[in-house]
Amino acid sequence: MPGQLDPYETVDVYPKATGFVKAIRVDRGSRVRTGELMAELEAPELVAQRAEAQSKLQVAEAQFAAAKAKTDADASTFERLKAASATPGVVAGNDVLVSQKAVEADQSQIAAAQQTAEAARQAVRSITQMEGYLRVTAPFDGVVTERHVHPGTLVGPNSGPASATPMLRVVHIDRLRLVVPVPEAYTADVLPGGTIAFTVPAYPAETFSGTVARIAQAVDVKTRTMAVELDVMNKDGRLAPGTFCQVKWPVHRRTPSLFVPAGSIGSTTDRTFVVRVRNGRTEWVDVRTGLASGPLVEVFGDLQPGDEVAVRGTDEIKPGTEVRATEAKSASS
């Protein structure tokens, strides 16, 4: 059966920030490691935005410090007035109340200043993170198979001439997926863990193998096939993703099968049959065909091992015809 080798992992690398390509360190065919720097972008406006955000953060922190100092001073004054008010006639009760309300107002100012400072801090952190996006790194170990940008190219997630095209494509080829569309009739005994042999056009004299790893468990209604994936180890990198394969798929039956020569199967507009000879007379036996094995075809029907069938199945031999059967040459020889 036909199959196709796909990368185990593949990703199109898009920029997360708008900028110009400053340098690109990889090209088609380059091997990369996880986290390796592949390209650098430059965006001068981000530097200005970070400086502005840091300035706002310093102002917010200064305001928070001033509010805290004022609160501490007012709290100290309130504590002294409260202590003095214990002696009758020394401090007016209204002065103590005014001082207490001033402390409560200062505490509200502190909370507001703290929130403002935290918002400014988050703004600086966000811009710093955006600057980190100017360094494009490899998401996993793999090979660069496509490159669409060069130094000076404007790139970005939502703007620029290359916005619809990825900067790079990285694929993982040390391990491949062999995708085989298995016909519906052969899916009953597909089990994970089985070893399947296959060949590729690049190495016609060699046979490779893969292990059944994933089964779709659903039949595609358009093709009447079920996708089965095999894991193929490719440490030496000889097999390339996208390669067309010929897969030698093993087919098992839960019970023994009967085979007849391909020419023994006849058909009319409404039935498929073989001509069986019993007691010197012919009879038509309706059958369903299965797999072919050389000159033989698997059949299912009211047949038993040892039954005699005509080598040529044709509607010219009517049921009940008296015949004298002779043994034909074996179809498998």
Spans of 5+ residues with little confidence (pLDDT < 50)? Answer: none
How would a crystallographer describe the biggest sheet? 6 strands, antiparallel, barrel
Number of structural units classed as domains: 4
Strand order of the largest sheet: 1-8-11-10-9-12
In N-to-C order, the SSE pattern is EEEEHHEEEEEEEEEEEEEE
E-strand count: 18
Can you count the helices? 2
Shape: elongated
In helices, the fraction of residues equals 10-25%
The separation of the N and C termini measures: 25 Å
Structural class: alpha+beta
Q: Beta fraction of the residues?
A: 35-45%
Mean pLDDT: 87
Estimated radius of gyration: 40 Å
